[in-house]
Design goal:
The protein is α/β, with parallel strands linked by helices. It folds into 2 domains: 5-125, Tetrapyrrole methylase, N-terminal domain (Cobalt-precorrin-4 Transmethylase, domain 1, 3-Layer(aba) Sandwich), CATH 3.40.1010.10; 128-248, Methyltransferase, Cobalt-precorrin-4 Transmethylase, Domain 2, CATH 3.30.950. Helices cover 28% and strands 19% of the residues. Helix 7 packs antiparallel against helix 8. The two termini are 27 Å apart.
Length: 275
């Protein structure tokens, strides 16, 4: 599989931002305009490929979606990067949000290093920052919070002490990939005595035309929202700052229902289409 070193290409691991195609960085834009191959996540705006990618580029969708059996295995994605780079191509691995926040970049970096393939990491606007800004929520607003934490769906072996610490902290808590278990999380935080001045903001499809924000005091959240199923992707902000959405929301709320901006994964095999 290995080719002479002077024929090896390069892989650019780049963040596409959380949805709005205009949040793409200039550096990523320039690489997209030069790329031979673009290996792209599901949570990347289709407008980025349509308007910004090199027309001759080969686009390989490698969608992933929690609970969807059509998701592309991580091992297959890493193999694609290696294969195209060993063919001497400039490969852009385009990820939603930021390239290193709750992505599988480690697996891909390890594969590239193992095959001695040159690479570069290009940061992007991560979902937490994009969602908060487009919801009018400053994550570390003075007088409300001095720190922010990025978390995933809380680990299954968490004990009461873990939730007690989360309930008592003054940090802003931002949960990625947590909508399916949100009701349980709120119940546990309430049980551990989280302060009544904390709010919960649920941001669906952030920074896209389909963005919806639901913000409630934490003790009113379950009566209002229990059992609601949220559109993917969804990001959750818990803390005093979440209340600021009511005052500083600037993006019109999507009232047309929960139409999807990012389409669900439909296949688990390699798909190759022209940009």
């Amino acid at each position: 599989m290995s080719l002479p070193t002077n024929h090896i290409g390069k892989v650019i691991l780049a963040g596409a931002g959380p949805g709005d195609p205009e949040l793409l960085t200039v550096k990523t834009l320039r690489y997209l305009q030069r790329a031979d191959v673009i290996v792209v996540d599901r949570l990347v705006s289709p407008d980025i490929l349509q308007y910004y990618a090199r027309r001759e580029a080969l686009v390989v969708p490698v969608g992933k979606q929690g609970g969807n059996t059509g998701s592309t295995p991580q091992s297959a994605i890493s193999e694609l990067l290696v294969r195209y780079a060993l063919e001497g191509k400039l490969v852009v691995r385009l990820k939603g949000g930021d390239v290193s926040i709750f992505s599988n970049v480690l697996d891909e970096l390890q594969a590239l290093v193992r095959h001695q393939i040159p690479y570069e990491l290009v940061p992007g606007v991560t979902a937490a920052l994009g969602a908060a800004a487009y919801a009018g929520i400053p994550l570390t607003a003075r007088g409300y919070a001095t720190s922010v934490r990025f978390l995933t769906n809380y680990h299954e072996d968490a004990v009461d002490a873990d939730y007690r610490e989360l309930a008592r902290t003054n940090d802003t808590l931002v949960f990625y990939m947590g909508s399916a278990s949100l009701d349980t999380l709120i119940e546990k935080l309430l049980r551990q005595g989280i302060a009544a001045d904390k709010w919960v903001a649920v941001i669906e499809q952030a920074t896209t035309p389909m963005q919806r924000v639901s913000a409630w005091p934490i003790d009113a959240f379950l009566p209002a929202m229990a059992g609601v199923r949220y559109a993917s992707p969804t990001l959750i902000i818990i803390g005093k700052v979440a209340s600021l959405h009511q005052e500083f929301k600037w993006l019109p709320q999507n009232e047309s229902g929960r139409d999807l901006y990012f389409k669900p994964v439909t296949k688990n095999k390699e798909q190759e289409v022209r940009a």
